[in-house]
Amino acid sequence: MNPFSWQACDSVDAATGALNEHTKAVAGGTNLLDLMKAGVMRPPALAHVAGLPLAAIEDDGAGGLRLGATAHNADTAYHLLVRERYPLLTAAILAGASPQIRNMATNGGNLLQRTRCHYFYDTAVACNKRSPGSGCAAIGGLTRYHAILGASEHCIATHPSDMCVALAALDAVVHVRSVRGARAIAFQDFHRLPGDHPEQDSTLAADELITHIALPDASRFVNNSVYLKFRDRASYAFALVSAAAALDVGADGIVRDARVALGGVAHKPWRMRAAELALIGETATLPNFEKVADLLLAGAVPQRDNAFKLSMARRAVVRALEQALNGTIDNTDAGEQHE
Amino acid sequence: MTSPSCPTYPVSLTVNGQPRQLQVESWVSLLDLLREQLSLTGTKKGCDHGQCGACTVLVDGRRVNACLTLALMNQGREIVTVEGLAQSEELHPLQRAFIACDAFQCGYCTPGQLCSAVGLIKEGQASSAAEVRELMSGNICRCGAYPQIVQAVTQVMQLPQRHDNPDRPHVPGTVPA
Hints:
Helix content of chain A: 25-40%
Strand content of chain A: 15-25%
Oligomer: heterodimer
Strand order of the largest sheet of chain B: 2-1-5-3-4
Structural class of chain B: alpha+beta
Number of strands of chain A: 12
Largest sheet of chain A: 5 strands, antiparallel
Largest interface: A-B, 48 and 48 residues
């Protein structure tokens, strides 16, 4: 690890005052420290924000929740209000990482985790995300894990988070602060597509601190939510493809509202309102689910090794919607015993 | 090892019940602090990137990868390592179960497996052997003692060991069956 100076922040003001191009916030550190050990990131200074009073998970008074930025992923996933109101989020968080990492990683940090592209991690090769302008060794390389949607000629990396796929589907809003003030960023605007600047993962400025994530009421989806994840081993692996699906279906079988987001396919969680709208007002049936998948995947461009993701993603969307129609799966089974 | 050109920072923590005050460089991981400065070599350094779980310890009762947290991030925390599980001569029930079930071959992953299992039980989220397997998945055993490890943990938790809860809905690829 490179040498760096250390500052433990005891207030939000102290933290926002400290953050800039050189001083990065660290809370759980599970991704940043890993990247620093690999020499991929070399921040000269770290500001420790884990002790800030930003760990609460609170009712917003309107059926939604505020998830504190420094609340741990595990505490968020197992929180009774999260499980009751957003089983999709519980399922997605529990599908990611390991219990040890979920105990350390924070909600804000999860949003800021960087791609697991092997070429990004390998400091011996070109990578426009790590070293802007150096080129992309992934293109033409081994591309099993890479993007099929929204990529550019400069970067084909994918965003690794499971949690973010659920947050995208749930219309989360990211609240941030800096010395310049506070602002709210709609989730679809938080992560960027690579374009000409793949080194910028998100629209968060260097001096901004995530304070919390707001989730609007999603009670209409509670009984029909599924996060489906396909990966190379049964647990503790990043998604090849994942799909978040949530349905609001009337007794007549007509879809009143729908949410679908894909993970593992793009530089950000892949969601398209037009694909969801194609299902609204229609029957919750296989042909209509296939239509959603086709719309969502329109324009997909595979790399040499990941053409399988086209059919895998299509099937993931269809299966997630079919499973969501049948009920909710939150990836825990200890509920009865511990609630 | 402290070189004069590198600034150090004070950190106070409790390790296996003993309060410790130390000076560390910013980049020292909790794992390296335990092994190199406190000579507690029970906690193992495997991948050093949070992928194998060999370095799992309990921080304020919660299992974490000691390699992915800095010593300075643990200011004021209570750390328990594998050396702290036994009560004097009395082994922890999990240690006894690991021995009874022969839940190790090479043994390198065992300290992390034990600390992880202690954390898993405390978390209270596992109610079946399948859940134990899933929630132990952050601990990699290269020699393949997984069945005996699950057996040892489920034995201590007094859970049925096989084919329990077959009707539980799960998402293929998300929770191992």
